Amino acid sequence: MAEPAPPVPADHLLGVYNRAPLAFERGEGARLYTASGEAYLDCLAGIATTGLGHAHPKLVEALKTQGEKLWHVSNIFRIPDQERLAGRLCAETFADVVFFTNSGTEAVECALKMARKYHWARGEADRIEVIGFDGAFHGRSYAAVYAAGNPAYVEGFGPPLPGYRTLKFGDHEALKAAIGPTTAAVILEPVQGEGGARALPESCLTALRQLTREHGVLLILDEIQSGLGRTGRLFAHEWAHDAAPDIMCVAKALGGGFPVGACLATSEAASGMGVGAHGSTYGGNPLAMAVGLAAVEELTRPETLEHVRRLSGLFSQSLAALQSRFPDIIEEVRGKGLLIGLKLIPSNRAFMAAARDQHLLIAGGGDNCVRLLPPLIMSEDEAREAIARLEATCEAMRAEAAA
Question: What is the pLDDT of residues 168-186, one digit of tens each?
Answer without folding.
Answer: 999 999 999 999 999 999 9
